[in-house]
């Protein structure tokens, strides 16, 4: 599908427009190009789903931490140093045999940046935003997941500044694994609800 | 507003196509737009709700056609113009014509890390009064179609649900998007059955939660 990308003939125009805008805003003193480089590097290489994976691995390993995360996710996540924009008001939701959680923002692209970084293109695009609330099982099928009818699907539409983090189910056969190895099983999609944690032989 | 951004429940867009974590950006300008928007936020000439409204009030056909960072670019330009930070001529030519306006703050390179990790963007405010609803209360959402910004999407208007969390006392975007005041209100997570929202052929176990403010909600008496 090509919903996510402008017509290719427009791309060079957009590129030129953005360059002109940046240079104008720098000339006016509103922004600093070096700051832009650092912002980009931060979200490309430093703040991403490995943060969230650490939260999940700790929650799987430490029952007290899991309890804290369920009661006050903002504090429990901040305690690991993951704070700041688009993570000011966190809610953690844990998958179980009974319930599978799925997170969407139908109105824009609200996403827990502090633990997952920038959202993938599909999360911000019409196919996901339109269908996650009306046909979540169909969306899960697009990601290769079929849940039994007896498992409830609970979709969270992020309409406020609350940001949702899904705690996927801990895979079987992972008893005694270190938190570092467990974190390697936790994918970005598993923390949105469009994936499951990897099986233990993936490490 | 009933604009192109209010997508919940629309049909016909085709399957969701997964993508790997990298590359994070698909065109070099996308990363510049993301960073320009983040850096301009630090100038504090508008709030996040004004910024959402600037994007969602694009003509629906454009909203649906543009890539997401293109939508951010268009929204940023609207805000830059409406606040007088730049002029139409400056945007067209990419050259300065008028001196900059005074802005509250600037994201300098050495401050980026701290500013991205700061809690300044928190939307909660000191509570005033008590929440009207408690967990388990049945509520109905209002039927409203404002031309202005609202965080109550079309698919969840005039529906009945249950309060599932009391989330705190938060800035009310429907008013905050107008730019002059926060108007904080009690915020709740409200749980709706899929059948209430979408009809009787949905799995009876499935649910959708939305985070809604007190002005969106009305008490339901037992029926």
Question: What labels would you give this structure?
Answer:
heterodimer; A: 203 residues; alpha/beta; Nitrile Hydratase, Chain A; 2 domains; two-stranded parallel ribbon; two-stranded parallel sheet; 11 helices; 4 strands; 47% helix; disordered N terminus; B: 223 residues; alpha+beta; Cyclin A, domain 1; SH3 type barrels; 5-stranded antiparallel β-sheet; 8 helices; 29% helix; 15% strand
Gyration radius over CA of chain B: 20 Å
Compute the separation of the termini of chain B in Å: 32 Å
CATH superfamily of the largest domain in chain B: Nitrile hydratase, beta subunit
Q: C-alpha Rg of chain A, in Å?
A: 19 Å
CATH A-level architecture of the largest domain in chain B: Orthogonal Bundle
Low-confidence stretches of chain B: none
CATH superfamily of the largest domain in chain A: Nitrile hydratase alpha /Thiocyanate hydrolase gamma
Output the CATH topology of the largest domain in chain B. Answer: Cyclin A, domain 1
Overall spatial form of chain A: globular
- CATH hierarchy class name of the largest domain in chain A: Alpha Beta
Named CATH architecture of the largest domain in chain A: Alpha-Beta Complex
Main sheet: strand order of chain A? 1-4
* Overall number of strands of chain A: 4
- The averaged pLDDT of chain A comes out at 94
- List the quaternary state of the chains: heterodimer
Number of helices of chain A: 11
Please report the two chains with the greatest interface, counting residues with C-beta closer than 8 angstroms to the partner's C-beta: A-B, 85 and 98 residues
Compressed to H and E, one letter per element, the order of chain B equals: HHHHHHEEHEHEE
């Amino acid at each position: 599908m090509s919903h996510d990308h402008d017509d290719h003939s427009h791309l060079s125009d957009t590129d030129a427009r953005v360059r002109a805008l940046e240079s104008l805003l720098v000339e006016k003193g509103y922004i600093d190009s070096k700051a832009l480089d650092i912002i980009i590097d931060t979200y490309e290489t430093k703040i991403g789903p490995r943060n969230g994976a650490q939260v999940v691995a700790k929650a799987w390993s430490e029952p007290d931490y899991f309890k804290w995360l369920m009661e006050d996710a903002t504090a429990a996540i901040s305690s690991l140093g993951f704070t700041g924009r688009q993570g000011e008001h966190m809610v953690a939701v844990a998958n179980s045999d009974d319930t599978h959680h799925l997170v969407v923002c139908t109105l824009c692209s609200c996403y827990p940046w502090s633990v997952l970084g920038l959202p993938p293109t599909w999360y911000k695009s019409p196919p996901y935003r339109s269908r996650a609330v009306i046909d979540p099982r169909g969306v899960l099928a697009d990601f290769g997941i079929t849940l039994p009818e007896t498992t409830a699907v609970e979709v969270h539409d992020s309409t406020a500044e609350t940001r949702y983090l899904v705690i996927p189910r801990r895979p079987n056969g992972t008893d005694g694994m270190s938190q570092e190895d467990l974190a390697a099983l936790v994918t970005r999609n598993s923390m949105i609800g469009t994936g499951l944690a990897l099986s233990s032989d993936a490490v | 507003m009933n604009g192109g951004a209010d997508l919940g429940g629309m049909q016909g867009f085709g399957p969701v196509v997964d993508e790997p974590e990298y590359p994070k950006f698909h065109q070099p300008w996308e990363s510049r737009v993301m960073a320009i928007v983040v850096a301009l936020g630090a100038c504090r000439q508008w709030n996040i709700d004004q910024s959402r409204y600037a994007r969602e009030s694009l003509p629906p056909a454009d909203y649906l056609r543009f890539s997401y960072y293109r939508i951010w670019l268009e929204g940023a330009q609207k805000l830059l113009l409406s606040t007088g930070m730049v002029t139409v001529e400056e945007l067209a030519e990419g050259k300065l014509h008028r001196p900059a306006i005074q802005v509250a703050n600037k994201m300098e390179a050495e401050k980026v890390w701290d500013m991205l990790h700061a809690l300044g963007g928190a939307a909660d405010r000191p509570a005033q009064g008590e929440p009207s609803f408690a967990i388990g209360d049945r509520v109905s959402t209002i039927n409203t179609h404002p031309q202005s910004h609202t965080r109550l999407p079309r698919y969840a208007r005039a529906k009945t649900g249950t309060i599932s969390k009391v989330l705190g006392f938060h800035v009310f975007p429907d008013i905050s998007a107008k730019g002059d005041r926060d108007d904080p209100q009690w915020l709740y997570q409200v749980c709706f059955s899929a059948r209430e929202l979408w009809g009787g052929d949905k799995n009876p176990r499935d649910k959708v939660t939305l985070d809604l403010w007190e002005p969106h909600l009305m008490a339901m008496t037992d029926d």
